[in-house]
Amino acid sequence: MKQKVLAVVDILLYLIIYLCMQGLCMGIFSAFFKSDMGMALTLTQVVSATVTIAIFYVMHWSPLLDTFYCRKPALFYSALIILTLASIIPSQWFIELSEADVPKEFEALFKALFEEPIGLFAIAVLVPICEEVVFRGAILGRLLKVFGTKKAWGAIIISALIFGLAHGNLAQSPHAFALGILFGWLYYRTDSLIPSAIMHVLNNSTAVLMECMMPDKDTDKLIDIFNGNSQLMYISIAASIAIAIPALWVLIKNTPPASPQPSPKERE
Q1: What is the pLDDT of residue 218?
Q2: What is the rounded CA–CA span in Å between residue 123 and residue 114?
Q3: Would you place residue 210 in the very low, low, confident or very high pLDDT band (cuts 50, 70, 90)?
């Protein structure tokens, strides 16, 4: 029981530092750049992400660029990239199924960030690495120590739920929860942040690239990308899933079973 209480306290501490760092930076940079919200948001994301990563690494709350073993590295990374790209269209379709719209204030923030080149880098690279450090390296890592290997999926699901809720809106939370499960499984399986960080960066980078390629689109609905052709859209979804499943199988086959975590009873 004591271990569980300490884990809850630690996780709350991680979340408080993560959220307060963003709030503090936003307050400071908003005061300095009152007429340029894009620059204020960009500096907030860059500084808060960088400082958060540094704090979690220095405090030994999360690993960073730790190595891991996979049987065939070239095949593993190829499958990782293919799985990420193949999941983009089904993921967008999944988001639209919720029929929840991103709040207008969130849309305004995203648009302001996209106006700054450094903001694009922050969204594509810095933010996903920071989130992996906090939600997988620190939070999931802490939960795995409490749950042990036999109940690892409980730790993965809880960390994914926290990750989803941290996004703060119904349009993004279900998708973030699903990604959190996949990223969490990768971290658990490899005992490294590298695979999940690569996948997260690729996911965000693709979203940024698509936004830059279609800045004047009136809607972000998947059907509009296919010019209203629903048949082509569903064929693309099915084809993407058909590609993603073998890629996931390759990842499973090329990573050894996760290193055992001691159970709570064993630690006592």
Answers
A1: 53
A2: 9
A3: confident
DSSP per position, the chain: -HHHHHHHHHHHHHHHHHHHHHHHHHHHHHHH-TT-HHHHHHHHHHHHHHHHHHHHHHTTSS--S-----S-HHHHHHHHHHHHHHTHHHHHHHHHHTTPPPPHHHHHHHHHHHTSHHHHHIIIIIHHHHHIIIIIIIIIHHHHHHH-GGGHHHHHHHHHHHHHHHT-STTTHHHHHHHHHHHHHHHHHHSSSHHHHHHHHHHHHHHHHHHHHSTT-S---HHHHTTT-HHHHHHHHHHHHHHHHHHHHHHHHTSPPPPPPPPHHHH-
pLDDT of residue 259: 57
User: What is the reported pLDDT for 243?
Assistant: 96
Hey, what are 82's tokens?
A: 């293919």
CA distance 131 to 137: 9
Q: Cα–Cα distance between 64 and 67 in angstroms, integer?
A: 9
Rounded average pLDDT over 55-61? 95
Write down the residue that tokens 């207008």 correspond to: 104
What is the distance between the alpha carbons of residues 118 and 184, in angstroms, rounded to a whole number? 28
For every residue of 50-113, DSSP letters joined together read HHHHHHHHHTTSS--S-----S-HHHHHHHHHHHHHHTHHHHHHHHHHTTPPPPHHHHHHHHHH
The tokens for 17 are 């530092």
Q: Can you give the pTM of this predicted structure? A: 0.89
- Residue 205, token pair as written in the block: 């980078």
Residue 221 has pLDDT above 80, yes or no: no
The 10 Å Cβ neighbour count of residue 208 is 19
